[in-house]
Amino acid sequence: MTWTESQLPDLTGTTAVVTGANSGIGLVTTRELAAHGAEVVMACRNVEAGQRAATGISGSVRVEALDLADQASVAAFAQRWEGPLDLLVNNAGVMAPPRYRETADGHELQFGTNHLGHFALTGRLLPALVASSHPRVVTVSSIAHFGGDAEVLRGNKGEGRYSAQKTYSQSKLANLLFSAELQRRATAVGSRLLCSAAHPGVSATNLVASPDGLGALPLVKHVAPLALRVVLQSAKAGARPSLYAATEGGPDSYTGPQWLGQSRGPIGPAKRSAFAADAALAEQLWELSDGWTGVSFDF
């Protein structure tokens, strides 16, 4: 399809939360939602970076502290929330730190941030979401999810030698399984909640250069920002699937670029791996995630 951000509807009266909103796809998503009338909360681990980014946005935005690698921070963010929430964009992520690291709660960093952080955030914000007349949750995955498999149920623990890319793939598979299972559970109880997923293809963002990911390697940190801008599509293009999912995507839809192995180009329905389409695997992961985070979803 030829859909672009220029086709976003009037979002006046919509309240949204975007995680990882201070840079890359999250920043573009925030900017476009605000430009079309939404009130956007930029949920950022680095509040100062978020505030600097916010100064360049036209529209209603505010910055709130949120560290998805710390369940206490997730709980505190949800406790501060007041009123209905119309849109939650689970965008933030960590990609492929070269050495094994853990969250504040003892989970592998990528799985604990990308999946468990967003699982807990969504569950804790569920009362605010269901209080909306048109609630929507968008979860950002990746074409890297094709590298994930049934070992996702280990939560990236006990896999032997640490593989940065494999654990990233498992976390992105977990994102897709979570989105699908959330929609199934919402539908089963007659909830209005609409859950959709998106992936950006391969875009020039801070995800690669971040010191929490591959940017921990000095060469990547210094070379990646320029090299990525030359080779890859822009963050603006990468945000289109998320923006479409946030406004137009149907229940359990998955949107991404259509060209060059889903890495770039016009957006449309994205492909899922067999594991990502496995409802039994999604249910198992949900129950484990409930136990790991202590967060239950009460519709």
From TrEMBL:
InterPro entries the UniProt entry points to: NAD(P)-bd_dom_sf, SDR_fam
SUPFAM superfamilies (UniProt xref): NAD(P)-binding Rossmann-fold domains
Pfam family, one: adh_short
Keyword annotations: Oxidoreductase
Domain of life assignment: Bacteria
A molecular-function term among this protein's GO annotations: oxidoreductase activity
Family the entry assigns: Belongs to the short-chain dehydrogenases/reductases (SDR) family.
Annotated protein name in UniProt: NADP-dependent 3-hydroxy acid dehydrogenase YdfG
